[in-house]
Amino acid sequence: MERVDFPAAWAAINGGVNMIKLKHIYKSYSLGDEQVDVLHDINLHVKPKEFVSILGPSGSGKSTLMNIIGCLDIPDSGDYILDGEYVDNCTENELSEIRSKKIGFIFQQFNLLPELTAYENVEMPLLYHKLSPAERRERVERTLAQVGLADRMKHKPAQLSGGQQQRVAVG
Questions:
Q1: Which of 6, 95, 125, 144 could bond 71 through an S-S bridge, CB–CB 3.0 to 4.6 Å?
Q2: Overall pTM surpassing 0.85 (yes/no)
Q3: Mean pLDDT across 83-106
Q4: What is the C-alpha separation between 83 and 158, in angstroms, rounded?
């Protein structure tokens, strides 16, 4: 089956490429012998700088949808186009690169490493980029200062309030 170039077609109609485009996304999970359909024919278009809320009752598929958008999970079928590029058939390394450069998450549980300081938790993802130690230090210090935690760099998550932990996670 030949793929339609959705980004180009949408750009012609819409006057610009969507940042996120989901087209006919389906996702199910096996629960023992039972198959549970979680997402059924999801279509979503998000333009650059547009804010979107995903609402629904518990168990309605919000987290599954966010995991697909965040390249943490893949749909069973459908097309996912991020910033004009298909991500459906990306390798795990390519998905990791996308998550590193194009996707940001603030998890409900902040997922900070408890044995690391605020500085080290912010620095961790930067270790995967080819930055010098001085560049990493400058970025981490600037980021923590921007979120009001310059004086908490050496504190571990257990020594920070929930709001402070969230700001470290955003960093």
A1: 95
A2: no
A3: 83
A4: 37
